[in-house]
Amino acid sequence: MYLYDIICRNFDLYETGADTAVFLICVALCIIVPYLIGSINPSIIISRKKYNEDIRSYGSGNAGTTNTLRTYGKKMAALILVLDMLKAALAVFFGIFLLTRGIGGAIAAIFVVLGHMFPIYYKFKGGKGVACTAICILILSPVTFPIILAVFIVIAVLTRYVSLASIICAMLFPFLNHVFYVEQIDDKTVHTNPGITLAALLIGALVVFMHRDNMKRLMEGKESKFSFKKTDKHKVVDVSAEATSEQKIDLRKEKQYSDDDFVKCACGRIIPRSRAVCVYCGEKNPAYVPREDDKKGRKKRSK
Questions:
Q1: What would the 3-class secondary structure string for 259-282 be?
Q2: 184 pairs with which residues across the strands?
Q3: How far lies 37's CA from each of 24, 25, 33, 72, 152, in Å?
Q4: Residue 192 belongs to a domain
Q5: Residues 137 and 281 occupy one common structural domain
Q6: What span, in angstroms and rounded, lies between the C-alpha atoms of 169 and 178?
Q7: Residue 277 domain-assigned?
Q8: Has residue 184 been placed in a domain?
Q9: pTM over 0.85, yes/no
Q10: Which of the residues 24, 46, 104, 111 has an alpha carbon 20 to 30 A from that of 74?
């Protein structure tokens, strides 16, 4: 039983034809509420509240788990991952509560992912929706989820490209859902659901679209690899002169740095001296020296 059916049965709306209006209201709620929930981005909120920074100003510029890991470390990344999954689960279960899994859940899944990618609260610049997509797959097509998770882990471990694993899994989602989907309805086993199939196609396409820059870097051999090894956080040397102009321009997108403001992390990446944590490996920067404007901002906040 779901809310739409309960309302129509209790008020005899099926006989009067008013059930259509109730259905349309439920569909609208499955669009609006999940989108607004998806637009709540924990990575942006926490980076602003805790660090007085915008996560989108560092690393890949993405407000998601991977960039959080590179910028603020493992604990913060784990927290963001859990919060992103929880918001997606809340949105999808809300849709299921209103209009079943194949209709309400599918619509809610599409729009919670859209909200995460294009949040109305943050000028439509959010994350790439991988964590949200994962929980949507788990709820909508639980048989498909372990297969996709296994593929993701294998590709990520073998290649160390999280983006590549995400892209391949996004493309496989519609196909695997079509092949392995199964659902019990009125004691009958159903192997297809048009609503969930459509959601799989749209969500998969959205995730691939959001990784278009990653695909370009992968083809050019410039994509950053994910590091599974813990680096020596005490080994940092000043090599500001070694930073290429391209790296410096990239790091100066949001803040202005001079050539003397760069150090080399143990992971081999060039980072600003004023970054407390390496944006690539997530380890603390022993050579960290806050900038003067950062110090002034802390004094103002303390007052």
A1: HHHEEECCCCCEEECCCCECCCCC
A2: 189
A3: 20, 18, 6, 24, 26
A4: yes
A5: no
A6: 14
A7: yes
A8: yes
A9: no
A10: 111
